[in-house]
Structure formats: structure tokens, C-alpha cells
Amino acid sequence: MNSTESAKAEAKAQAVHDFFDQELMPLATRFKAAGRPLFATAADDAVTSYFSARARTVMGRDDFILKGVGSPAAFAQALRDHWQRSRFPEMVTLGATLGTLAELLRGEPEKDEALSPFMYVMF
């Protein structure tokens, strides 16, 4: 790795650390202080059963199709839409930064280079 790549990797790591320290952890702390954990950390004695009957018991073709997004901006919007409908709408504020991180951390496009003759190609 050359110095430019090293600097880019360091900037990416710092951006993730900054997001964690400046946005994610303060939000989690507010949820915890308000008694609103993101998920249960212990069994609830008031709940008689955690079993829930499924309305649909057979999977179809659409269940195996991965529905992705076309861009980091679309990813950010999908997160904001999801969180707006969730029981944690305060998380909507994380969408913009996560979209920026998705763009920053996006991998480089694959180069169309010749493979070594010793490489077995499976597809």
C-alpha cells in the first residue's frame, strides 16, 4: 500500500470513528437514558411467550431476490424511510451521514485485467 492509499484508508477509518463517537453513541445514550433500548437485553417476565405464528408459512420466489439500492444516496434515503416508520424515528438523522460513509467506503470498480494462467475461474 502506498502512502496515498494509506492516507485514504486512515481517512475512512477516522470517518467511521467520528460517526460512531459523535452521532451513534450520543443517540444510543439518549435512548438508554430514556429507557428505550434498541433491543431487549433480558427476558421480560410480563411476556408469556415470545412465539408468534406466521401469517405466511411458505417462501416464494420474491423472498430470494435481494432488493438493493442503486447509490449511496438511495441507501441513505431508504434508511431514513425505514427509520421514519420504525419505533425509533430519531434515527432518521443518521441517514445522511451513513449515506456519506457509504460513498466514502464504496469499493473501487473492478478492473478488467487478464487473470493469471494459474487462476481457476469459476464463473
Characteristic key phrases:
123 residues, mainly alpha
Structural features, described:
- The chain is mainly alpha-helical and 123 residues long.
- It has a domain at 3-37 and 63-105.
- Helices cover 46% and strands 0% of the residues.
- It is built from 3 helices and no strands.
- It has helices at residues 3-33, 72-85, 94-105.
- α1 runs antiparallel to α3 and α2 packs antiparallel against α3 (94-105).
- The radius of gyration is 21 Å and the shape is extended.
Structure at a glance:
The protein has 123 residues and is mainly α.
Residue-averaged pLDDT: 88
- Determine the N-to-C terminus distance: 29 Å
Strand content: under 5%
Question: What is the SS-derived class?
Answer: mainly alpha
Report Rg: 21 Å
Q: Which overall shape is indicated by the principal axes computed on the Cα atoms? A: extended
Approximately how much helix is present in the residues?
40-55%
N-to-C SSE string, H for helix and E for strand: HHH
Topology of this protein?
Layout: H1 3-33, H2 72-85, H3 94-105
Helix pairs in contact: 1-3, 2-3
